[in-house]
Every structure is written in structure tokens, then in C-alpha cells.
Amino acid sequence: MGRIRILSDQVANQIAAGEVVERPASVVKELLENSIDAGATRIRVEVEGGGRKLIRIVDNGHGMVKDDALLAFERHATSKLRTSDDLLSIATLGFRGEALPSIASVARVHLQTRAIEDEAGTEIEIAGGNILRVEDAGMPTGTTIAIRDLFFNTPARRKFLKTEQTELAHIAALVTHYALAHPSKHFELHSATQALLIAPAVANAGERLFQIFGKDTAMYMLPTTAEMDFARAGLPEPPPWKREADYEAPDPGYIRITGFVSKPELQKLNRNSIYVFVNHRLIRDRLVTHALIEAYRNIIPPTSFPVVLLFLEMPPQEVDVNVHPAKTEVRFRQPSFVHDFIRDTVRTTLMNARPATSFAAALHPATNSASNSLLLDVSPMPGAPDQPVFSPNPQSEPEPSFADAEAFTLQAPTLPESPGRLEFSEQSIPVGYDAERPEDNQQQTLNALATLKPLGQLRDSFILAVNDEGLWIVDQHVAHERVLFEKILREREIEKVQRQRLLMPLLIDLLPAQMIRFAELADELDRNGFEAEPFGPRTLAIKAAPVGLEGRELERMLEEVLGVPEREQQTENSDTRRRRIAASIACHAAIKINTPLDSSKIDWLLAELAKTEHPTSCPHGRPIALRYSYKDVQKAFQRI
């Protein structure tokens, strides 16, 4: 007898479940996508035990007839594809037909569904892939599916699940993502102890952003939108000898971006607050993430990340969603075109907005500075650890000691209201900004820098200036750094960098790795005004340098440029390298703190700063100017 045999359907489904069903959140994702594809406008998710015990999803979609309900649990049974050509233009969230049979093979499933044309619904019970009961049932139009005892027949998989709180956090993040992507639908998420998310349908994505994350986050978000036709990408057409007689060039379609990006002062410690959707599909794509990071380069610190809610729309044939069983990864037909379009759109939005940082924002970093992510509270009891449950590596809690125990009382503890419990009045919700102070929000820009009148310096380090908007404090070092940075980039672009020759060559001793790095960067350094050559195996002779760099600052700048870790070198492209070198030159050539400036130099610096494209922050992400508004001054003196 041969060694090779065909696997049974049950084993094949369990193998598929290993690809599709990674954790309870994977089950929620597949079922949520089915509900959205079914045209549901109200979706309710109930979870117990972090999804291990129960996941129930109720929707008011079009439902299924009895035959379709039974066929849906067969492998690769789908209503969304007919031919292989349909794979090239997928317009639905689900299409593989693997989710339901894979889930049913590792859990106990209870399905209730009714199509609008049927008088009675269908009720099906399945355990471990085996159908136990099929009956008619009375129910409203739509589908209710309950998943109990996930991985009950695969205990090895169950052992690899995290704590209930961690699994619940993943589910909460997922439902939040889809609520953001579909503002016209009503979403609810309930655990055994509380309502984590109640998001009624709203008019647009801006209202949904305000609804879920609140005013404190929405006020730091900037709307962005752009559109471009794919014809500019220069897609090749088939040669004439391969065209049919009735051949017509296909319409390339458009790529559109809508959404919100954060102002530079709103920063996070990880990528968890980057929400990206392609044709309303939630994705985790390195290409898009890299484009967003590049858009914020030299605007926020390299270790921080922005908050982004971005919607990409493009023709289905331009994106391949059939590259991963979980459908969270996609492949773009024109990746470079999409990358550059996203980067340029976001960067243009930031430069046009020129947001100003107020003293209140700078002095209260808890509301807007770097924190882990925008998360719903999923702690079921008071006294939960401060460690965010969404953290990819949550730390274990310390064991409680006798000294930590509270005195015994017969009073019931008061449960604090969870930040995840959202309440809404019947009135319309002001989107993105505080409705009580519209005049302040209109002035939160740096467009008035050209009107500043300098008063002097604070300890020879900060420039004090005023205008009709209020009192400004400008960091003279980072302001000059921004001016020089953009000047270097412009001169580098037209190859007119100013350089100064040194009276005597400056000799710098380097490590072997730095000498190798110099050989790689020699051409770029030459374009930025350096004239250098090796002077022995480990010595570099500098004969000329950019104007403004001299002595010890010149040595420090070269050590900084040549001392980049190898991991960063591997991911660095030509544009990133050019900006990094320009930022380093600007930093070491800029006016230092504790440097007295006369009035003419202060006037020049403020005038040049007003001309820059992005005067919000220096190339390393530090704020340049802080404004204490006239209204804040009035409040401080109790005038209003």
C-alpha cells in the first residue's frame, strides 16, 4: 500500500483553521466581514471569556435561505465568486469560502438566519464539523451566529491563547477598526461585564472619529484628501500584434485618499494607532506604513509614530487581496506609485496646515504626547493594571501581598465608568474641535509668523515675540535648524551647494566600519558640499565643508552620519539618506543656545522661519515655536 493518502474533510478543515483562525479575534473578523457583505446596518458583537467561551454576532443583513445556510459550511462555498476572472476584481471583504467551515471544525456553532423572502428562518447546530441539528425557527431577517468553546477539540491550539484580557483587547481593536471604516453602520461590542463600544451610525468618518476617540484626539487631527488617475503611472499596454481587432485601452481609474492625520504634537510609541483601509478592507501593509513614516520624517522624532485614519480607494484590479488566508495583507499592482502618492499627500497636508503648538498642549503631555495607542478600556473591574492590554508584550502582574489587602467592608465597591463606554445625546456632535472655541481653532496655525515683533531673548536661548494672536517663544537653535535644513535640500536639488575650503585639511580618525560607510556615502557627501578623501587606512582628510560647519562641529557631524546602525542602513533609501545628511548638517551648523543675538539677526531668523514650508518642528521632531494666545492671557488675568 502506498504512503500517500487523501486527508479527510475534517482534518483538512482543521488545517485550514490553523491559517484562518489564529485567535478569537480572527473569528470575529471573518464573521464581521460576512455581516458587512450581507448589507447589515446594525451589528452587535457579544464576547465571553475573551472569545474562548462565546462569540455571538447579530446582524440585520439579508440573511440566507435554508439551502444556502447548509451549503455555507462546505469548503470553498462562496456567493462572491463565479469564475477565476472574478479574483482580479474582488469588491467584497470575504470571498474564499474557508471561514465558516474552518471555524465549525474547531468550535460549537449555532446559526440562526432568515432571508427576507422566507416566512421562517433556519437554525443549525454544528460541533467539531459535524451537523447535529437543522430546524426551522421564527426570527427576524438577518443572521445570528454563536461560536462556543473555541478550539475545544484542539487543546494544543487552546493552550497558545493569551489571557482573557489580551484576547478581548484584540477583539476590541478589530471592532473599532471596522466601526471607523463604516461610519454609516451601527456597531456594538459587549463583554460579560460592560459595553465596550456603542457607536451609532453617523454621517461621515470625521464624526465617527470624534465619536470613538473623543474631543482630545479629534482636535489634533487634520483632514486630508487627494485624487489622482492611474494613467499617470504609465502602465504598459499590450503591443499592437497582441491586440484584438476591437481592442480598447482599459480605463485606468483613480486612486483616492480620504481620512485624517495627526498634527506633529500628537505622537504615539508604536504603530497601533495607524488605521489604514483599502477599499474599506482593514490591512496591515508595510508599504503604506513606510509611506506614512516617510511623510512625517523630519517632522516628528524617529522613535514616535503618528495617529492616522486613512481610506484608500482604487479599482479592484489594482490591488490583490488574495495573498494571505486572513486577507490582512495585500499586494499593489503599482507599489511605488501608491507609496509616493500616500507620502506626498500626507506631507502636503501637514505643510499646508502649518499647525501651531500652544503652551497648554506643550505643558500637559499626558493628553497629546507619546503614549502607546488609542485604545478602548477593556478592564472589567476597578484597580486594573495601568499596563495597556493592547501592548504586544504585556508584563505580568506582581503577586498581591497581605499588606495590599483592603479592610473588609460590607459595602459594594463602586465600579468606575469605563472610558470605553460611550454616551451620546440627541444633539449633533461637533466634529474634531471644541464647539465653544471656534475662533481659537481657526488661529492654531503658524501662518502669522511673518507678523511677529521680537521683544528680546530669554537667557540667550529663546526668542520672545508678539503679534495680535498672543505671545510667542521661539527656540532659536531649532528655528535656525529648520531654515538651514530646507535651504540645504533646495541647494542640493539644483546642485548649488555652497562650500568653503579649509586652510589646512582636517584629519579625522575613524573606525574600519565607518571608513566602509564613508565609501558608500562619499558621492552624497560631495553633493552636500564636502570634499574628503581617505588619508591612510583609518584616517579621513576633509579639504572642504558646507558653509557654517567648522572645527569640532564638523567632526561631530561626520561621526553622526557615519555612525548609523547597520539595521537602519539596510532600510535607508536615497531620499531618506539625503534628508538625514541634510538634517545633521543643519543641526551642527545652526545657532546654538546661550548665544546672544542682536535685533537684526533675530529679525532675519524670524523672517526666514516664516518662509519655510514646515515651521512646526525641527528635522528631528522638536517644536520650534509655542504660542500663548491672547485669550489664554485674558483667562490667566481673569478678564474673561
TrEMBL record:
Coiled-coil residue spans: none
GO cellular component, one term: mismatch repair complex
Family annotation (InterPro entries): DNA_mismatch_repair_CS (IPR014762), DNA_mismatch_repair_MutL (IPR020667), DNA_mismatch_S5_2-like (IPR013507), HATPase_C_sf (IPR036890), MutL/Mlh/PMS (IPR002099), MutL/Mlh/Pms-like (IPR038973), MutL_C (IPR014790), MutL_C_dimsub (IPR042120)
Domain MutL C-terminal dimerisation, first and last residues per copy: 454-597
Pfam families linked to this entry: DNA_mis_repair, HATPase_c_3, MutL_C
Domain DNA mismatch repair protein S5: 209-351
One biological process term in Gene Ontology: mismatch repair
CDD domains attached to this UniProt entry: HATPase_MutL-MLH-PMS-like (cd16926), MutL_Trans (cd00782)
GO MF annotation terms: ATP binding; ATP hydrolysis activity; ATP-dependent DNA damage sensor activity; mismatched DNA binding
Keyword hit for Cell membrane: no
Chain intervals for the UniProt region annotation (Disordered): 381-402
Keyword annotations of the record: DNA damage, DNA repair
HAMAP family: DNA_mis_repair
Function text: This protein is involved in the repair of mismatches in DNA. It is required for dam-dependent methyl-directed DNA mismatch repair. May act as a 'molecular matchmaker', a protein that promotes the formation of a stable complex between two or more DNA-binding proteins in an ATP-dependent manner without itself being part of a final effector complex.
Family: Belongs to the DNA mismatch repair MutL/HexB family.
Protein known as: DNA mismatch repair protein MutL
GN (gene name): mutL
